[in-house]
C-alpha cells in the first residue's frame, strides 16, 4: 500500500503526517521548546535508591528525576546461553546513591511521571541498531525467511571489525540494503559511540551525551520504506538539510524527497488539519453510520463500538458483524493517529456467532500489523471485551495538544444551574450561622442569576425570610457556570 509523508515546518514546531489512500494514518509532532527525550543518552547521578520498589531515581538534568527500574539495568552475560534466565541481583546491590551512570531514555516523561531509563545503550541507524554492550548480532523478527536472516547475519559479521566488542540488531529495512549502505551504517554508529565514550570522561554528571535526531531527520531514518511514495517538505531550508542528510546516510531516499512550493498550506491541501480536530474528539463516525466512543484515562483507554444509524440490509446479526469489521479497521487507525498506549479495552457490539468474533479479531490483528509500535492482542474475554496493550513511549496526541478544561477540570461535564442554585442556598445558610453580616451578595454567572430571578425565586425568598438578611444578586460575565462568590456586606 503506497504511503506518502508530509512534513510541515514552522519555527515553533515540526509536524509529520503519514498518508495512505488519502487518509492520515499517523501524526507526529515535535515542538522546538520541548523535544522528545527517547533515545537520548545521559551521564546521570543516582540521587535515591528505593529497595522496596526495586527502583532508583537518577538526576539527568531534567526538571524531574528520571526513573530506573531493576529490570532495565544491563548486566553482562556470563555465558552465551541466552535461554537460561539468570536471577537479577537486587537494585541496592547494583547501584548506590551518588554513583555516576550512563543511561538512555526509553520512555518520555508522561503526566506526573519522570522519564524512564535503561542502562542498556542502543544507537539507531538507518539499517542497523548498535548495541555497544552486547556481542551478538540479532535480526528483526519481521524478516521471516530463515535463509535471508542467515545471509544478513553473515553479511554484518563480515563488515564488523575483528576487534569489535559491541553487537548489532539488523532492522527490517536492511533486507534490501546494499553492502555499502550497511558498511556506512556500521562506521557511523561506531563513530557515534566513540564520541559518546570520549565525552563521558570529560563532563561531570548530569550531562547530555547524545541527542537523537530531530523529527524531520528521523522521518528519513525510521519512517521511509519500500512502499513510501513521496516525501513532501514545505520548508526550503529543511528540505535542503534533509537532502544533505539523505545524500550522506540514506541515498536511496533522496529521490523521494520533494520541496512543496504550493500556495495552499500543505496540511490544508491534504485535509490533515481537519483530521487533527477529529482525532481530539471522543466520537469517531464510521462510513456505515456506526460510531466509536474513545475515552482516554490515566490507567487505560476504552473504545466502545455502536451501530448508530446503521440498520443494514439483511438481519440484525449481519448488521452487527459489518459494523464491528469496519470498527476494527478504524480502531487500528485511531490508535496510530492518536498515539494511544498502555492498556486498551475494546467493547465490540455483542456477537452470537463464534465465527463472527474470530473474523473481527483476525481483521483487527491484520490492521494492527502495520503499526510500528509493539502490540499484544488477547482474544475476547468472558465479558465479550478485547483486551490489548500498545507500548507507550511518548504522550498521546490529546496530551500534546490539549490540557484539562479549566471549567470542568477534565470531568467532561459541569453542574447544572439548578444544582448550583441549591449549592449556593446551602452555602449562604451555612455562613449565616457563623457570621452576622448586614447583607449577603451573590456574584455568579448569568444562567445562575436568571434561575434565581425566575424558577428559584421562591426558594431564595424563603431563605431570606429564614435567615433575616437580604440577599442581593450580581451577574459577572467572566464567571463560568460553576463559578460564584458570596460576599458578606
Instruction: Give the strand content.
Output: 25-35%
Distance from first to last alpha carbon:
72 Å
The strand count comes to 24
Kindly identify the CATH topology of the largest domain: OB fold (Dihydrolipoamide Acetyltransferase, E2P)
Q: Helix amount, in percent?
A: 25-40%
Explained architecture:
The protein is built from twelve helices and 24 strands. By secondary structure, the protein is an alpha+beta fold. The chain has four domains: 3-35 and 214-272, eRF1 domain 2 (Nucleotidyltransferase, domain 5), CATH 3.30.420.60; 40-75 and 93-210, Nucleic acid-binding proteins (OB fold (Dihydrolipoamide Acetyltransferase, E2P), Beta Barrel); 282-401, Aminopeptidase; 417-488, Ribonuclease E, catalytic domain (Hypothetical Protein Ychn, Chain: A, 3-Layer(aba) Sandwich), CATH 3.40.1260.20. A hairpin with a 3-residue loop joins strand 9 and strand 10 (128-131). Helix 10 crosses helix 11 (446-453). The termini are far apart.
